[in-house]
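Practice problem: predict the structure.
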Amino acid sequence: MVFRNSFQQQQESKDPAVTGPISPYYLDQASFLEIPSDHSPESPSTCFERIEDLTATGCTKVNQQPVIPSEVYHDLEPCEAPDSTISRQRTGPNTRSHLTYSYYPFLTLDMSGLEPDDAHYLESRNCLSVPTPDALDDFIREYFLHVHPGLPLLDEAQFWAVYSGDKEPCGEPTISLFLFQAMLFASCSFVPFSTLKGLGFTSRRNAREKYYRRAKLLLDICSGRDLVSNAQGALLLTYYATTRDRARTNSILLATAIQLAQGAGADQYHKRPDQGSVDTSRLKRLWWCCIVRDRILPLGVRRQLHIASINPALDHLTEQDFAKEIEESQVYSPQTKRSLVQLFISLCELAIPFTSVIQTVYGMGQSAADAISPIIKNQKQIEESIRFCETSLNAWLDKATIQFPIPAGIISTEKSLVLYTNLIYIYYYSARVALYQYEAFVISLTSPGACMDDKLQQTRLQLEDATLGITDNLKELVQLKVARFLPVSIIAYAALPLVLHILDVKLARLPSQTARKQGRLNIYMETMKGLQNLYDGVDDVWTFIRGAIDSATSGILDSFSPKTDASPSSALCSKPFASLQAADDWGNFLLQKPILYFRLSRTIDLSLAVGCYAEDSSLSLLLASAEFPSPGLYFIGADVPAEAEISGSDNGPMDENGIPELDDICAEKRSDIFDEIRDFGGFELDVDSLHTPEFLDMFELDLEDE
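Answer:
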């Protein structure tokens, strides 16, 4: 099977009669002729630019030599609600579009010991069903284009051999149904929407939810004895992100995956006598993927590690561990695949300094009150830990920038490489943001008077630089229209910078300042708009942001009595009101009103950590002893403009009949976060241009549709 041929050949020929070979698993082709081709200009195919729907005919082996041009990505197509002619699909997935797993000889499910009622329940919940071959090819292609580069759990070459039927159906290896359903969940955000609609789903978010539930039920009820496959599948399910259950499910699944991997001996792969064997290589990949996921997730959602340390005896992943799939990838050229492998190896190296950053910043609990006493008592050790983290991060950066210079687009025209290069630097700069914000909090608690001013000023500069680094990386992705292919974790990483840029726009005094700061804010808004149709997490994080800003600027002090002997509060007390009038950006806001800044930022951190909106009452206690005017945003020198008369719904996209287009049938119930951002505390934030950014031309961003 060769997906790669579509990268160039379909660009050269747009004749609809030109089709590829028939899938070896194709069933009842006539019944699917009504499903439209989905490789429109808005489709999420990996090739970042337009290709035709070659995969509608399936994927199979061909005898020609693949031609591999530059890989470029599609844009995602609009997610529209099914119209009345297909309203029957709203009741659930179309059963005609799914087959029982046993239709595919490469899928296996261990049902030994399963009660009949459990088997019937799994069947009733569609856990034993997978998409038909034409749709399935889309899922698998998108998995290896968009999920696998960031978490290469599987040997891609071996997978294609099994999937295409090169391996004997009755022999090993096969693919666990649970792992396969987890792959469908992880990839469905990038699958063309017409494919999902043909399967009976109303939106990408709806598809994610359904496939997650199917995989999760298989894990809970019928996961089988294959610990490695179970660990791999559980690790993929950590990409599930919603606060509806408020159970921090992704962290629980991460712990489950790590325990399963340990049960399989993955953490001891370096002690196995058969070094270099397929089994050892599989365990080695799995354990490093566990380590990476146990750094990316906790850093984003401000939680503690499950793998507290990385054994220095572990052999690092090398290109040799990926040699076969570099040459036999069906979606990337060998050159691009090799670079993507090198990026993941660099991410594994970044996981080492991330360990000390997360333990330093989030190792003392989630409450500021819990952290204050240890911070004051162990100030010197904490300062040394911060410097060690700083040195480790800088050492990684020095090496990484030689191999992967930035801006990435200057070196490579491969948009997939630009995407993952910028992503790894977003992770790096996010670690710096966490580190320097923690340092600012420590300084505010332990350094009184002029000493605090000098230290806080230096930390403020580092914090601003790290935040700007995230913005610049996102800018390049928005510029190339690939930001929407970022993983769900980016939503948590962007939360605090988004808040700070909102604050920056409001604090701007001069039109030139407003334009520049608005342009930076628009980059985040464009990113979030691209991700909102894919992930529930955007709406959840917006709830945190809205609540945090409303709380920090409510003008209502908590009803705690000030404690005259509360020494930490003295350092955190805000400066006189007059000095705040000079604040024209969030950095000065940190210097002049640290207590308000930390109330705002800690609310975001705590909400992400606990999985629902939460405030730190210990900061409210400190706030009660600070003397300052009503802390609404208006008191920092901004005018109160008239209330906006135009609602966001008037600016949304319309269909040919003038009816607003909806991504899914629940879209009307979701508040438009890009309209809400205009108004905090009853007055205009003057960001009407967020739906159609007008300042991005300052950054030479071309956001016009291609």
